[in-house]
Every structure is written in structure tokens, then in C-alpha cells.
Write a structure and sequence with these properties.
alpha+beta, Cyclophilin, ten-stranded antiparallel β-sheet, two-stranded antiparallel ribbon, 6 helices, 26% helix
């Protein structure tokens, strides 16, 4: 006989799948009504593929070797060197070591469904965004969990990209791009900006960095200017305040330590704390 805990997990999974099926149906209807030319953006992604792979990858999983970032002419896709997805299952899977020991969240569908606003307090000013709790419930629930555990406090945003794509990447307490929370979970909401080899992640988007399908952890990126990307990175928030701060940081450039227009921000960006408001 199934335990109460097993029944609860089954109910949560069924509820999640119903929501995702509804979202997928809505997105399919939207795609049928639209005809988007993506030839130009595909070319941009192929030219800048080396930068995209490096900037949006995380190396929190010891089995992952991110694509090389020494050349901006590489054509490797962001997931080209990623392992088979460990997160075909829905939920949080313990993996690797944690940059900060905060445990693994236990998903609560009722709590995850509640909308919230997050304020990232940085040494350069506040960045505020609305979480897409309906479209990406596991992602937004994880971020809230980590924020309430003070996981992001006093951590540096470790990558700024100002060529090909336009993002500031944060969420690694080690400040190296190799740190994670000690667990991974599945991708969500990948059809948010459409389908195809390349879509445009709009300025003001908050999305997850990863090392391949199903390898989301704690690292995320903030899009400060429209960026062509493969639809492989979970979009889970929309910036409502502070986009000008990100653009000001980008104007100072990166140290080009990975490639031209890709490296640590010249202007140090430190997340001092994160506030969740419901």
C-alpha cells in the first residue's frame, strides 16, 4: 500500500504535469499564429557559439566539461558536451557538493504556486523581478528556497558577456562559475520565447544557466539587452526595476578573461542579499 508521502508526491507530480500540459498547449497555439524568421539569429548564434556555451554553462556537476571559451568562432551548442540528463524525473536530485550547505528543498505545490517578487540587493543598486511561478514552478520555488537560506548573500556575479549575447551571470557562492547548491532539477518553460534553433531572450529576462538538459542548480543570468540563444535555458523571471543598473555595469565591460567581451565584470557586482515579497 502506498504511503501518505508517496501519494502526496504522486498528486504533486500530477498537478505539475497538468499545468505544464496546459502551458504547452497555449504555447503551441501561439506558435501556430506566428511566423518568425530566425535565419539571422541562427547565424549570430553560430558565430558566437563559443561565448554562449561558456557564459551560460555551469560546472557544478563533476561529470560536466563546459565547451571551451577561447574562441568566439566556435560553433558548439551549449549542451554539446553535456552528459545525458539526470533529471528526466521531476523534482530535485541531490548531486555533487554544495558551495553552501543548505540542504535539498522538498517541493510544495501550494507554496510554489504563489506569485512573488524578488529584490536582488547589490552593491550597485537593487534589481527587482517578478517570478514566473506558474510557468516555472520548480525553478522559482528553488530560488525562493535558496534566498530564504541566505545562499546568495555576499556572492559575486562572476561573468559578464557584452558580445553576441548580453547577460550578467550570478548565483555561484564561489564566484568561479563552478559552484552549485548540491542538487539539480529539470528544465521548464523552454517554449516561452518560441521554438527553433534560436530565439530572442528579451531584455529583462531572468533565466537559468546550465550544463545541459536537466542540470539546473543555483546559477542564473540577467539579460540586459535582447539576446539570440537556443531555447535551452529556463526563463523564470521578468525584471521590473534595475535594468538600467545592469546596462551601466555592462558599459564598464568585462576583463575578457574568457574571450573578447566575456569574463568577469570590470566593475565588481556583489549580491548582498535577496528579499522575497509575496
Amino acid at each position: 500500500m502506498a504511503s501518505t508521502k508517496d501519494r502526496q508526491r504522486a498528486l504533486e507530480r500530477a498537478r505539475y504535469e497538468r499545468v505544464q500540459a496546459k502551458i504547452a498547449k497555449q504555447q503551441l497555439a501561439t506558435k501556430r499564429r506566428q511566423r518568425v524568421a530566425i535565419v539571422t539569429t541562427i547565424a549570430v548564434v553560430l558565430v558566437g557559439g563559443g561565448v554562449l556555451a561558456a557564459v551560460l554553462a555551469t560546472s557544478s556537476s563533476p561529470k560536466t566539461t563546459p565547451a571551451a571559451s577561447s574562441s568566439t568562432s566556435a560553433s558548439a551548442a551549449p549542451s554539446a558536451s553535456a552528459p545525458a540528463s539526470p533529471a528526466a524525473k521531476i523534482g530535485y536530485t541531490k548531486t555533487g557538493s554544495a558551495a553552501k550547505n543548505v540542504g535539498v528543498p522538498t517541493y510544495n505545490a501550494a507554496v510554489a504556486a504563489k506569485p512573488y517578487t524578488a529584490t536582488i540587493h547589490t552593491n550597485r543598486g537593487d534589481v527587482v523581478f517578478t517570478a514566473l511561478t506558474t510557468q516555472a514552478p520548480y525553478t522559482t520555488y528553488s530560488f525562493q528556497y535558496l534566498a530564504e537560506k541566505n545562499y546568495f548573500d555576499n556572492t559575486n556575479c562572476h561573468r559578464l558577456t557584452t558580445s553576441g549575447i548580453y547577460v550578467l551571470q550570478c548565483g555561484d557562492p564561489t564566484g568561479t562559475g563552478s559552484g552549485g547548491p548540491g542538487y539539480q532539477f529539470q528544465d521548464e518553460n523552454l517554449g516561452y520565447f518560441g521554438s527553433g534553433a534560436s530565439v530572442t531572450y528579451k531584455a529583462g529576462t531572468v533565466a537559468m544557466a546550465n550544463s545541459g538538459p536537466g542540470t539546473n542548480g543555483s546559477q542564473f543570468f540577467l539579460v540586459y539587452k535582447d539576446s539570440p540563444l537556443a531555447p535551452s535555458y529556463t526563463p523564470w523571471g521578468t525584471i521590473t526595476k534595475g535594468l538600467d543598473i545592469l546596462q551601466s555595469i555592462a558599459a564598464q565591460g568585462s576583463d575578457n578573461s574568457n574571450a573578447t567581451g566575456d569574463g568577469k565584470p570590470k566593475q565588481t557586482v556583489t549580491i548582498q542579499s535577496v528579499t522575497i515579497t509575496q
